[in-house]
Write a structure and sequence with these properties.
17 helices, single chain, Growth Hormone, Chain: A, 3 domains
Length: 461
């Protein structure tokens, strides 16, 4: 009779009560801000780190690559682990590890120690990122879930713009170690709000260490294969061959389980499957645009760094401004309709950048980039709602992990495609890279149009 502990507060049937919901939401938003800043500010500091540690560009890039690789291989295993140890415990462990790793990175005196610290930063960020989807699902009542998702999207958009700017500002006033130290106070502030987070019931199934290992091989080698595809095609093919073998083993194992680490049970649900497919190509479009457009604006249109920054900033403004609007529009339109319009606007905005005449108005280019950002922001809130509500509440951790891994892999796929076209079509690589973004956005649009004609598209939302 005592198998269920009475000291644990039950999770509210439909989100948290006010004002606990407010403090839990603020804690979640601080956590999101910390992870975005941790990733974006480090990129700006790479040249300064290279000079300080006397290493070249090909070596210092591992400060970012090691961080990203750890996130990719650990997201799904940590999502499954979080369902078993509890969201609160995972959040505390992630924040504490991020603080310690950030201090370690700041006091690193060699590239090796810095990369080791970044590995632990990546692990800590993954421990937090795998929780965001599940936490927002359990913090907000279903009627207000779209508002919560849009707040998350706005936070990501604002921090993604603020991160590089804040990093550059810090480097103007201080040395690169402060890039890592600046997030420590935010981590400490977030820990004060942990007690307000929902206590989500834990999964009873044992953690599958075999599936964990297979998952790490599949996702790690996939990212490495994409990264080396152009320079080392044979090694990339070897990576993909191993991915095929281990992926088959992982899939067969997952199909036999009720709550698998690889959430095939969620992908059987029509709303989740559509959301994952559309999200993958949406993030591929966004990342391929952000990789290729700076080259396009500088080499084709001869813009300065400041001009490029303003144009990319217009995209971020569109994302931050439209995310709350799409939440409100969900009252009147289906998820499929809003997602199709959003992906279509993204394709239209990026396409307009290409067709505007050279030497034309800078203002029209800004409008085109703003339209692309509006489309991306318009798409994210309804699509994430479909993914998170399409999963049962007890699988909210797995749904959050699936959301994060889809984003990371979509971005990696978009980056790899741009790298391929830059190599194969060096003469007009930037233009071809922008075309890749348009094609990916059109694929996302097509998925959502097909989604609109499927009766089961919004069954769980």
């Amino acid at each position: 009779m005592s198998s269920q502990p009475s000291c644990k507060p039950p999770i509210e049937a439909d989100g948290l009560d006010w004002p606990r919901r407010l403090w839990a939401a603020l804690t979640l938003l601080v956590g999101i801000a910390v992870t975005v800043l941790d990733a974006s500010m480090a990129n700006v500091a790479l040249p300064s780190i290279a000079r300080s540690l006397s290493v070249d560009a090909s070596q210092v890039v591992w400060v970012v690559m090691a961080y990203n690789l750890v996130i990719v291989v650990s997201l799904l295993p940590l999502s499954a682990m979080a369902e078993r140890v509890g969201f609160r415990r995972m959040y505390v462990a992630g924040m504490v590890l991020l603080m310690l790793a950030s201090v370690g990175a700041a006091f690193s005196n060699s590239l090796v120690t810095l990369i080791v610290a970044r590995v632990f930063q990546g692990l800590a960020s993954s421990m937090l990122m795998c929780l965001f989807g599940g936490l927002v699902r359990n913090i907000y009542p279903l009627a207000k879930l779209s508002q919560g998702i849009s707040l998350n999207a706005v936070t990501v958009g604002v921090m993604a713009v603020l991160g590089p700017s804040l990093g550059a500002f810090i480097l103007e006033l201080a040395s690169w170690p402060w890039i890592f130290l600046v997030i420590v106070p935010l981590c400490m502030a977030s820990l004060f709000g942990v007690r307000f987070l929902p206590e989500v019931p834990r999964a009873s199934e044992r953690f599958d260490w075999t599936a964990c290992l297979l998952s790490m091989v599949v996702f790690g080698l996939s990212l490495i294969g994409l990264d080396i595809l152009v320079k080392f095609p044979l090694w990339a093919l070897a990576c993909f061959a191993l991915v095929a073998v281990t992926g088959t083993l992982l899939l067969r194992r997952s199909l036999l389980q009720t709550a698998p680490l690889l959430p095939v049970d969620l992908l059987r649900r029509v709303p989740v499957a559509y959301a994952v497919g559309a999200s993958f190509f949406s993030f591929a479009a966004q990342m391929s645009a952000f990789v290729s457009l700076p080259f396009y604006f500088q080499s084709v249109r001869s813009f300065s760094y400041a001009d490029v920054g303003m144009l990319l900033g217009a995209w971020a403004v569109g994302v931050a401004g439209m995310a709350p609007m799409s939440s409100w529009l969900l009252r009147y339109f289906s998820i499929a309709t809003l997602c199709a319009v959003g992906a279509g606007c993204m394709a239209l905005g990026v396409g307009t950048v290409l067709v505007l005449p050279l030497g034309g108005s800078f203002a029209w280019l800004t409008v085109a980039m703003l339209l692309g950002g509006i489309g991306f922001g318009f798409f994210q809130t309804p699509n994430n709602r479909a993914l998170l509500t399409g999963a049962p509440r007890h699988r909210s951790g797995a749904a959050g992990g699936l959301q994060s891994i889809t984003r990371v892999f979509g971005q990696g796929f978009g980056t790899a495609l741009v790298s391929v076209v830059f190599t194969l079509a060096a003469a007009f690589g930037p233009t071809a890279g922008v075309l890749v973004s348009i094609v990916c956005a059109l694929v996302a649009t097509a998925i959502n149009i097909h989604r609109a004609f499927n009766p089961a598209r919004d069954a769980a939302s």
